[in-house]
Amino acid sequence: MNFTMKYFPMSAMNWWYLANVTVDYTQDKDSSSSNTTSTMLKDRSFRNLISAPQNWSLVCGNPDNMTRIFAKIQDGTNLFLEFKNLQVQPFDVIDGSFSRAVDCQGWFSIGIWTGLIITLLLLTILTMGLCMVAQISTMDRFDDPKGKPLSIPQND
Predict the structure, then answer these.
(1) Considering the domain boundaries, does residue 96 fall inside one?
(2) Most CB contacts within 10 A, which of 29, 35, 64, 68?
(3) Looking at the structure, do residues 79 and 8 belong to the same domain, yes or no?
């Protein structure tokens, strides 16, 4: 694996990312001989997934989004590279331990997004209901039972 450091003006800091991955594998077609072959994986399958700020490490407990890093081998089969419990920090390692970590799962899960959207929808409905109740006005004329009856013309 080769890592590259690049300055990104939008974040005003250096970020490292995985530049390329080369996999060496042994292919046993016959029991008598085995060949060790090397292949480079596709750049677009991992470049945006494995990156972090310069002094940070990347940690992924269950990286579902990184399991599709693949390449086609000469005989037409696919080569998959799957990571489990991955933690990587290629630069600025101090005393052999990882520094702060960026989690690959993101800040909001599906459950959190669903809860936020439903809460926003219910608050909107409540606000509209309160506005409708506030617009209700009482009649300004009342019928006096001891006096002359109130006459309201009904002309169309």
Answers:
(1) yes
(2) 68
(3) yes
